[in-house]
Design brief:
Blueprint: E1 3-5, E2 12-14, E3 20-23, E4 29-31, H1 40-48, E5 51-54, E6 60-63, E7 71-79, H2 86-98, E8 108-112, H3 115-131, E9 148-154, E10 159-166, H4 170-173, E11 189-194, H5 211-215, H6 232-244, E12 253-261, H7 272-278, H8 291-304, H9 312-316, E13 317-324, H10 348-357
Parallel strand pairs: 7-10, 7-11, 11-12, 12-13
Antiparallel strand pairs: 1-2, 3-4, 3-5, 5-6, 8-9, 9-10
The chain binds guanosine-5'-triphosphate (GTP), magnesium ion and zinc ion.
Length: 380
């Protein structure tokens, strides 16, 4: 008996007994029966393109060769207040991650782990946002479900990983009880999303519209001059994760974190710490050798703008990097992002940096992103 932990629902599966299916174009599963006297080459082809059924969470499907892989599980949680920008950022990130030609230069190969989950997410978020430039709805408060999941291979190192993402409603992340946030027990990598609209003085005065600067800072608590009280979901999740991992009294939380100042299109221009990254060339977001510099700049930027409360993840997590990004590059008008200014910006880098901290990307390519190598340099 081969027991395998399902990377999607964490249930233990008797792999060889899990029903084999094939999926047609419409992704409808059909039971796979292997003809008894078939040539081994044909059997290999059939199995290599088939799926095993996991009964967890109403039933879902994993590649049939998953059971033979020694894949390390990486589970990423998107953390931040309601309306911080988590869902748009993740859709832009995953859009770039799965259209992975660019990732080949990092020796990474990315494929969907569970076809049905992936198809649903692409239909509901990636395509509407990236291809139709539609504004996504706020995430509903509900039982936490995997948002999307991938199998990531580092071809040079011959290693495989499952990378799954949880994007739940900010309202839910702020709830103090364990019950709503039990999924955090599986999370071992974090993306903290900083809403610049919640930090006093960071965002440009909205030209006439008042649309985003006002809309973005829902949930932040104003703490007077120079900043605000921070993002309660950051504190809450850090606390719950420490409990989950039995690290309540430890100096550091043993989980890597990428801290992303999102909606960078809204930031007041002119600050040199910011300008360099906003003007960087398009492919710069694949260059992990600048992660340490960018992290230092973002750290100093937030610190000197009175946003030190948002640096809590960088202080508490044993590995962290900091980034500027913008999912859309512009604000929506009537629920659509205008074509002329729509430009997802530096969205893949925080994810690559997180994967580097998890050891997925070779440190040759990640000069500054490896575990323990980033030092914020600013005493707080
Ligand atoms: N200007 C600008 N606005 C953005 C950007 N990304 C998201 N927004 C806006 O920010 C608001 C919130 O975005 P979401 O991604 O839904 O926020 P969320 O963190 O997922 O919120 P919850 O699901 O409620 O937790 C929406 O009004 C978006 O239009 C961006 O890159 N630039
Ligand atoms: Mg959301
Ligand atoms: Zn499962």
């Amino acid at each position: 008996m081969v027991m395998i932990e399902c990377p999607v629902c964490l249930r233990n599966l008797d792999w060889e007994q899990a029903p084999l299916v094939t999926m047609g174009e419409d992704l409808a599963p059909t039971p796979l029966v292997l003809p008894p006297d078939e040539a081994p080459a044909a059997t290999r082809m059939r199995l290599g393109t088939a799926y095993r059924t996991c009964p967890g969470r109403g039933g879902h499907y994993l590649p049939a060769d998953y059971g033979d892989m020694k894949a390390e599980r990486i589970t990423v949680g998107m953390i931040g207040n309601s309306a911080a920008g988590k869902s748009h950022l993740l859709a832009a990130m995953i859009g770039q991650f799965m259209r992975g030609i660019r990732l080949r230069q990092l020796d990474l190969q990315v494929s969907p782990l569970d076809l049905l989950i992936h198809k649903r997410y692409v239909q509901e978020a990636v395509t509407p946002f990236l291809d139709q430039r539609k504004e996504l709805d706020r995430t509903r408060v509900a039982a936490a479900e995997i948002t999307d999941a991938f199998l990531v291979a580092n071809l040079a190192a011959g290693k495989r990983y499952t990378v799954t993402f949880f994007d739940v409603a900010g309202e839910q992340l702020g709830r103090a009880g364990a019950e709503e946030n039990l999924f955090l027990g599986a999370v071992n990598a974090l993306i903290f999303v900083v809403d610049p609209g919640a930090v006093r003085g960071l965002v440009r005065a909205p030209a006439g519209s008042g649309v985003n600067a006002g809309a973005v800072n829902a949930g932040a608590v104003d703490a007077g001059e120079g900043g605000t009280a921070g993002d309660y979901t950051f504190d809450n999740v850090l606390k719950l994760l420490r409990l989950a991992r039995d690290e309540a009294a430890a100096e550091f939380l043993g989980v890597p974190a990428a801290v992303v100042v999102t909606k960078a299109d809204l930031l007041r221009r002119g600050d040199l710490l910011l300008e360099r990254w906003l003007r960087a060339e398009a492919d710069e977001d694949l260059d992990l050798s600048t992660v340490e510099e960018e992290s230092g700049d973002v750290f100093t930027y937030l610190y000197t703008h009175g946003a030190d409360r948002w640096l809590e993840p960088a202080q508490q997590c044993i590995w962290s990097t900091l980034h500027f990004a913008s999912a859309a590059g512009t604000s929506p008008r009537d629920k659509v992002f205008p074509e002329e200014s729509f430009r997802p910006f530096r969205v893949i880098k925080p994810l690559l940096s997180l994967l580097a901290m998890k050891g997925v990307i070779d440190s040759r390519n990640a000069a500054a992103g490896g575990p323990g190598q980033f030092d914020t340099g600013v005493p707080v």
